[in-house]
Amino acid sequence: MKHLSMQVYGLVQGVGFRYSVLQVAVELDITGTVQNEMDGSVTIEAEGEEMKLYTFLQKIRESPSPFARVKTVDYDFSDNLKNYKKFSVTG
């Protein structure tokens, strides 16, 4: 199990992006959170099997929402697990 933190920039608010992220996370059996930030970006905290997290990252880069436009994704993998029980949309 690994932890993946992401900051997603582009047109990612007000276009259904967070709920598309939730759908992808559920499909890949990933837990964590996704939330909007005041600067217009979206923060994602995700945990799961390492290969599934790489797939998740790729899907986020490609934008799971047809209305969103992902410009940049800053990310970091770590072993510091927060032990989320499910994936949820917050903020």
UniProtKB/TrEMBL annotation:
Keyword Transferase among record annotations: no
InterPro entries on file: Acylphosphatase (IPR020456), Acylphosphatase-like_dom (IPR001792), Acylphosphatase-like_dom_sf (IPR036046), Acylphosphatase_CS (IPR017968)
GO molecular function: acylphosphatase activity
Native species: Companilactobacillus ginsenosidimutans
Substrates-to-products reaction catalysed: an acyl phosphate + H2O = a carboxylate + phosphate + H(+)
Family per record: Belongs to the acylphosphatase family.
Hydrolase among keywords: yes
Keywords linked to the UniProt accession: Hydrolase
The protein's Enzyme Commission number: 3.6.1.7
Gene3D superfamilies on file: 3.30.70.100
Top-rank taxon: Bacteria
One Pfam family from the record: Acylphosphatase
The protein's name in its UniProt record: acylphosphatase
Entry annotation: catalytic residues: 18, 36
EC class: hydrolase
Ranges for domain Acylphosphatase-like: 3-91
Transmembrane segments: none
